[in-house]
Structure formats: structure tokens, C-alpha cells
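User: Fold this; C-alpha cells only.

Assistant: Input:
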Amino acid sequence: MKKICAFIVSVIVAAAALTACGNGDSSSSKAESISSAASAESTAESIADSTPESKAEETKESKPEPVESKADESKADESKLEESKAEAPKGDKSGWGPLAKEYTEKLAGGVYTIDMTVKSDLTGEMPMQVEVNGQNAHLKTKTMGIEMEVYLVDGKTYSLMPSMNAYTVTDNSSLADQNINTYALADNAQLTESGEEDGMKTETYKIPVNSSGNTSLNLDTTVKYYFDSDGNLKKILSSAPILGDTTVDINSVTFEDVNISLPDLSGMTKLEQNGQGQVDPKDAVTMTMSLLGISEDMVTKAGYTVEQLAGMETEKMAEVLADIAKKNGIE
């Protein structure tokens, strides 16, 4: 019973995520995606602005102060900002090492295929394949045992869940909206160490993050690249105060032309979305029932309707469906 409950929960969550990665709302999918150093910087700045210390500064009781004091404070803040900019200049690539630089410049060509296995504090272990050809892309991953694919073709995003034989379509999406990290160097990355480890050449970088003047926070990201003797990227270790530790095993990388075309969707169910860009709860329940072999008649005999199941909390719904499955001999 526990196993089938866990499976049902994973299916429901995966169904909810089916549109989250392509709806343009990055906040809804950050916990399930591998954010890049750039997005880590953006997230860090946001969190820095909302820390207890900064909030306390915003809400503390206002007291009259001399005009000169305010002017001096403003100048001090401007000085800190300029100092931060000088420490991590945008567009300045002078701090790049040769190996990671070559990898980044090849990615900038916009044609590549990467097969990698991502292990992180946020997602656990997750295989991922990324194919890119200009503005078109194909992403394939497996999370919580559920396989998912995303196609970006001609300005539209098609999110597929093959095991459920279903998909969604959203407009005006780009590769950046998917929050997929290819681990290209951020412009402000600073090489801190070069060396050798386990028979591979290494380059370690610090990506400075502006903490909005809060000097008590250290939000910098550290990224370590591992290259074989031919200069091929084999592994990446990333550590960020917010995102935690991530290990990326690079199974293969190619920079050859790749054909990205949409598969035949005629036999799949197109799922409609609600106003928040998410799969309708009733559709998610219907998909799960179909995947488990539970018919609507079984649900009715158990004293429920699909609408009632859709209105339940995920865990409660899983328990009910698991009980219905058990009573009907579904293992």
C-alpha cells in the first residue's frame, strides 16, 4: 500500500510539473531544476533582500536624522555598489581559464548535445539529455521515476509525459525559460585555481554574487570543472549557499548539427491548462487512474467521483486510489 501511494503521489506531482517548466514562471520550478550560476546569482540577490537583517532595516522605527547623515549614508551605499561591480564586472571574461573558456565558447555556437547525470541536494539523481540547434531544443529527463520530455520548436513549448501518453503546449517560450544549466561560464566567473585530480585537469571558479550591500552574507558560488587529457569536459562540482551541492557527470558532449523535430502527437492526449498555467486537477487524476488501470466505474463503486478526488489533498487522494486499486486486485 505504501509503495503504490508513493507512486501515485509521484505521478500527481510529475503531472503538475508537466507545465511548470514551460509556463514562464521560473519560481514555480526552481526546486526541480538545476539553476545556472547566473540564476543562482539572481536568486541569491532576491534572498539577500529578504533576509531578517535587511527586513529589520526596512521596518525599524524611523528617527529624525540630519540631512548630512542621509547624504553620507547614500554616498556610502553608492560606494559599496561600485565596489561590488568592480569585484564582479559583467562582460569581463579576463578571469576565465583556457579549458572552461573553450567549452563555453563552443556552447555559444548554439549547436550541441549534452548527455549528463545530475546529482544534487535538491533533486537527488537525475539523468538529463539536452539537444540544441539554434532556437529549437529537446530536453529529456527522468524524475521520481517519471520520464518527461520538452520540445521547443518554432517558438512553442511541448511538454510530454510518455508514460501518461499526454502533453501540453505553451507559447512564447525559450530555452532560458527551462532553467536548464549547461554550466557555461558566467561572465564574472573568476578562476581561483588550476590543477590536476584523479588524472584530470581541473579549473576552479568563484562566481561572485552581489548581496545587495549586506556584507554579512557570503552567497558566492564555487564551480570546479574536470577535463580529460584531450580537454573534454567530464565532470562538474558546484557548490552554492542557496542551491546546495551539485555533481554533474558528463557522459558525452558533441557540437555537431542535430535535427530537432516534434514527434507524432496524434495518439497522445492534449491537456488543457488552468489560469495559472497548470494541468487541471481533474485531468491529473484521470491520467493517474488510466496509468494504474483504475476505471471511473471502480471509483463510483467506492463511493467517490473524479471531481471529489481532484478536490482532495494529494496524499489523501493517493490513499483513496491505492485502496480502490487494492480492492480491485491491482498491484
